[in-house]
Write a structure and sequence with these properties.
75 residues, flat
Length: 75
């Protein structure tokens, strides 16, 4: 990978690292808040993907995000 592809990959890695840092900072304050935020983000991403994301998530994460009709979402 060279040139623009390498630059895009580096930018994506930087974005991911920043998101991880922000989630870790939030988790230090209240892990339940982080779980809620992540569940809301995953639910929004699933809606944007027309429901295609949920089939790629583990059952516990689907339940947390309210994406699994068979299991209630965790508080």
């Amino acid at each position: 990978m060279t040139g623009p592809d390498q630059a895009e990959a580096a930018a994506a890695d930087d974005d991911a690292a920043e998101l991880i840092a922000q989630l870790k900072e939030l988790a230090g304050a209240d892990p339940a808040d982080v779980r809620q935020v992540v569940a809301e983000v995953l639910a929004a991403l699933d809606r944007a993907a027309g429901g295609a994301l949920r089939e790629h998530l583990p059952a516990t994460i689907r339940a947390d995000a309210g994406l699994d009709a068979r299991a209630p979402a965790r508080p």
